[in-house]
Every structure is written in C-alpha cells, then in structure tokens.
Amino acid sequence: MREMTKKFLEDAFAGESMAHMKYLIFADEAEQRGLKKLVNLFKAIAYAEFVHARNHYRELGKIHKEMAENVKQCLDGENFEIDEMYPVYNTTAQFQDEKGAERSTRFAWEAEKIHAGMYEKAKELAEKGEDYSADKIYICPVCGHTAEEEPPEKCPVCGAARNAYREFSV
Predict the structure, then answer these.
(1) Which of 5, 12, 69, 82 has its CA 20 to 30 A from that of 164?
(2) CATH at 53
(3) Reported pTM
(4) Element (H, E) at 136
(5) Where's the Rubredoxin-like domain (predicted)?
C-alpha cells in the first residue's frame, strides 16, 4: 500500500474508532435518562462506525489468520500503555494539578496491567490452538479494574462494591 493511502486509512481507522466509542458513551448517557430511541440511534450508528473501522483495519492488513498474532497486537498495545503512555500522562496530570485527569489515567494504568497479563495468557493459549481459560470476566464500571471468574468484595483500585462489577460470560 502506498504511504499516503496507508496514512489516510490509519487516520480513518482512528476517527471511526473514536466515533464508535463516543456514540456508545452517549448511548449510556441517554439510557440513564430513559431515552430508549436515542439509545437505539447511538448504538446503531456506533455499529456502523465499527464496521467502517473494521474495514479500514482489514485493508491495512492488521487482521491476521493466526489468532496469536491478533492477541499479540493487543498485548503490545497494553504494554505500550503501561510502560510509556500512562506513566507520562499521569505524571503530567500530577504536575499540572489536574486531579480528574490524574485519577482517570491512574485508573486506566492499573487496569492495563491486568489486561496485559490476561493477553499474555491468551497469547500462550492461542499459540497452542486453545481458547482463553476464563468463563467469566468482571469489569469495574468506575475504573475498569478487571477480574476473572469472581469480582473482589471491593475494587482494589477505586473502592467500588462487588455488585457494581459488570459480568461478561460465555
């Protein structure tokens, strides 16, 4: 692929990805206000943005036949966030006395460490042609703390109660 086309597709992927997430965030906000049809609109268009992002990613050659390669991309991204991105973002937020930004980057940083471990395990399993081992994964809706099989009594990062965790199960 020629460089200009590649750069534009990468930018389009980033834009579509951000739109997808933004619309899902707005859907949550609308749902809290009981606006069911607006929720539906946000979710439907978020899916369209996902389709666009997936198409761009595919054309960039980023979706691999070997699942271990796809998982490795995830692991590499988590490690970048842990080792480079969030340490700098968090330090900057502290330096500039931006309490909210410090908190949100710390929350994400802590969750990414867990995610990296999970992706490392998933990569090892995928290399053997096996599926991931956890049947249930729990996510704290406040900070993103992640637990397998059972959530903790209290989130170790933000203190949210066990019953606040969202379950993702097979």
Answers:
(1) 82
(2) 1.20.1260.10
(3) 0.91
(4) strand 136-139
(5) 135-168
